[in-house]
Amino acid sequence: MTNCKHQILQLAPSPFAELAGYTQPSLEDRRVATASSEKSWNITTKSKDSVSTFPAPLVLPFDDLNYDPDYETQDFTKWQRLHTRNKVTASKQTIYIARVPEVTGNVKYMHDWTKPILEIDDDDDLYISARSPPVEDFIDYISAFYHGMHVKQLPLELKWTSWYAGRKSLLQRSIPKYVALQHGKETTRIRTRVPPDGIFRAQLNLNDILDGAMRILPGDAHAICLLIDHDMWEEDDDFCCGRAYGGSRVSVVQTARYNPTLDAKEGIDREHMWPLSHCKDFVDRICLTEDLAPRKPTQRQIRESRSGPMRRAVDAASIWARAAGDRENEGALWFSRLARTLATYLAVYPPPTINALPVTKLLLPPARCKTPSAISLGAPVLFIGTALSTRFSIAFNTSGFFVVIGVSI
Predict the structure, then answer these.
(1) Which InterPro entries does this chain map to (predicted)?
(2) First-to-last CA distance in the chain?
């Protein structure tokens, strides 16, 4: 922890963006991109580009926009005309989220597969063994995120069991070739392997789990998401955090790789997670790896760093960052990462309830949220989570991120 003050904010693309070949679209182009094919929205935005509300992408080294700055954009009209979108119908308007499968007695060794293999202090051992966030928290989150949709827990109980009938495997020393995902009276065979990077003891095959998800998709489901506590892989990848198949209405998200216990090993700077990533000192430090010397802050940067929505967001996030080692906050950080992923994967089958609104009206009415109080203060998530006694409002910006509009207690 460097105790950075985040005094000057970088709200425009970084100096590296020019080297990467990225050009920020003009305000007018971004306005046009939000227009409906049926009618143009009367966006009551000042002619001046309000970067303090909707900051530009930083385009830092190793960012996706760095590698492919000319990737084809998608405006609202293109999104609206997608043939692959699943329409919400009267018979298919429920989002199902499945509880993490239970590990049954004949595969008890699978409990150890969920724990990262790290050199740790004794104090961290309990956290590594901690359970992932409960499914009820995700149901609360997705219900608020996709306002107007029915969000339910999948009533079918899922279990991990042995694929090899009649064999005792309580003390399995080697990794079996297969395990079974039990759903009701049926099972789906799941391949296993040892992870190439050795972070976990075993991985499960993502495609096999997706096959199981397709078999249990309820008839009234708009979409279903399975939560898996184990590490997964797909094809030749080292690991895969999840996958969504929009046409099949199924998605799978693993919790293991999002565990904050892995942050130190991966070199994650929690002090500069979004929105703190807009700290100019942090941006300068990253750009220095590409031999770009820091530039003096402009008068506009100094002025825009003093107040405004991003200033307030950074100040609020700084409070979280100072308490980042707290166990409760680490659990909230774990939840925030997973909640963002679930919301993104479910967007492959985008419900129109929120997305059909104009940008200027994408402000949800105040709502109650039962998720932990720190879920996104400093964490890269889609909205600020609040305590039960807190009300929140969120809005969508044209670059694809959610920003806090107002929080009151």
Answers:
(1) MetalloPept_cat_dom_sf, Pept_M54_archaemetzincn
(2) 29
Q: Is 298 exposed, middle or buried (0-12, 13-18, 19+ CB in 10 A)?
A: exposed
Q: Which of 57, 223, 91 is nearest to 145 (CA)?
A: 223
Q: Report the pLDDT value the prediction gives residue 76, as an integer from 0 to 100.
A: 87
pLDDT tens-digit readout, 304-331: 999 999 999 999 888 876 665 566 678 8
Angle at 308 between CA 361 and CA 59, to 5 degrees: 85
Chain-centroid distance, C-alpha 349: 16
* CB within 8 Å of 155: residues ≥ 6 apart: none
Cβ–Cβ < 8 Å for 116, 262 = yes
